[in-house]
Amino acid sequence: MVRFGLVLNRTSLVLVCIVPFMLTAVPFSLYYRTDDIPAILLAAGATLAVSLAMYLLTSKGGEANHKEGILITTLGWILSAGFGALPFYFYGTFPTYTDCYFEAMSGFTTTGASVLAEIEKQPAGILFWRSLTHWIGGMGIVVLSLAILPALGAGGMQLFKAEVPGPTADKLVPRLQDTAKRLYVIYTIISAAEVIFLVAGGMSLFDSLTHMFGSMGTGGFSPKNASVGHYQSAYVDLVITAFMFIAGANFLLHYNAMARRDFTAHLTDEEFRFYSGVVGFFTVTVALNLILQNIYPSFLLALRHSLFSVVSIITTTGFATEDFEKWPSYGHYVLLFLMFVGGCAGSTGGAIKCVRVWMLLKMAANQVFRIVHPKAVRTIRYNGRIVPAEVLSGIQSMFVLYMTVFILSSLALAWLGHDALTAISAIAATLGNVGPGLGTVGPVENYSHFSLTAKWICTFCMLVGRLEVYSVVVLFFPEFWRR
Q1: Gap between the Cα atoms of 102 and 115, Å rounded
Q2: Which stretches within 201-318 are classed as H helix?
Q3: CB 427 within 8 A of CB 73
Q4: What does the alpha-carbon distance between residue 53 and residue 280 come to, in Å, rounded to a whole number?
Q5: CA angle 13, 19, 24 (to 5 degrees)
Q6: Nearest Cα to Cα of residue 109 among 461, 482, 387, 378
């Protein structure tokens, strides 16, 4: 039986963690002399008050079981987006709370789909908080909570498994809280490095921080209407591309490289090689197609924009330097395909993940081999180890569920009157936590013209995609709620 008191108690601990982050927007409001401080303080106060009330009025004892871990994780994300929307709501950034919630959920799930039209007209504090939600959600709200709050350590592995992306949730060290802390140390070090590089390139500290939040969290919110294209700088493009690529790789590999001085881990990891190969192949082929179609005057310029867009989409970041809707059809097909692939397991990226795609390809090849050699017995290996049957089954099941949600949700958008390209790409972009799509939700447009129903469908897809389908979909099965 699910102990709802315990669930609410642990969820309050997750929720309270976003309060100090919300307050970090205030110094930027003061520096730029904007009028959004009351809204931010009111939102932080309301979040703190509700968190404390939930904590004091609910049961504190016991260890969360598997079902309760799933509920805490899912509810933590839902409520974090709900209270994270309050600065937008109190300031009047959007006309409806639905729009505020859409923007906050898009931020925390690192989707980057937006309903904000005139971005540069918004005050600094609001824009800072909007981008900061990416950085918080990138490594995971619950993982952040595990790093900060020892009380969540009881039953924390259930929360860790429910949130960390990938077929398995590997720990760096035996103690879960130490794992969460080390993940955030690595995350923070790499984030600080990106800020230094961007500032060195002439970008302001505010712009450097907000773009770092978007690239390290693989989110894509920018304080500029034209996104990264605003700067028209090859240096800025290259720096952000590099850090998006890093954020799209498994942070366990980064940990081994930085902490254990094991710089061979990336080269020997099958998923990272597949990830790098996909990026390299499609970057070159898209660039060649752009040159053959006379879109750019030089191959170097085509390569620059191709590399940025391919990395931005496969890592599910969603930053843009160019309106790729104006590219030839090949570029559209490639970017739509990459929306489903996503980054590596254990990264801040979304979508299906490279390791699952790689395993699905191996399973398909294995099946063809069996048809040719019916009596042969051949196992599927990953990094030299035999992959257990239950892991392969889980990958297949996740893929089927992911595609089921995609098909049903895109059909729902089509039923609401959206054209096929918009419906398909909007759901691929929100379910994969990518952000911009094609059609009427391209890189120079947004989701503001969607109806309230369509926005809630996309919001649901963002949550499902960020929690890797199972943690949300399982709540709709009656068996979950039985003893």
Answers
A1: 8
A2: 205-216, 234-247, 251-259, 265-268, 270-292, 299-314
A3: no
A4: 52
A5: 145
A6: 461
CA distance linking residue 71 with residue 74, whole number of Å: 5
DSSP string, 176-229: HHHHHHHHHHHHHHHHHHHHHHHHHTT--HHHHHHHHHHHHTT----SSTTGGG
Helix (H, G, I), strand (E, B) or coil at 382: strand
Contact 402, 469 (CB under 8 A): yes
Q: What angle do CA 217, 190, 224 make, to 5 degrees?
A: 45
C-alpha distances in Å from residue 264, one per residue of 138, 254, 272: 25, 11, 11
What token pair was written down for 337?
């395909």
Query: Which DSSP string corresponds to 385-449?
Result: EEPPHHHHHHHHHHHHHHHHHHHHHHHHHHHTT--HHHHHHHHHHHHTT----SGGGSTT--STT
Contact 426, 463 (CB under 8 A): no
- Report the 10 Å Cβ neighbour count for 167: 18
pLDDT tens track for 293-334: 999 999 999 999 999 999 999 999 999 999 999 999 999 999
**In the structure encoding, which two tokens stand for residue 26, read together?**
């205030």
**Total residue length of the chain:** 483
pLDDT tens track for 207-232: 999 999 999 999 999 999 999 999 99
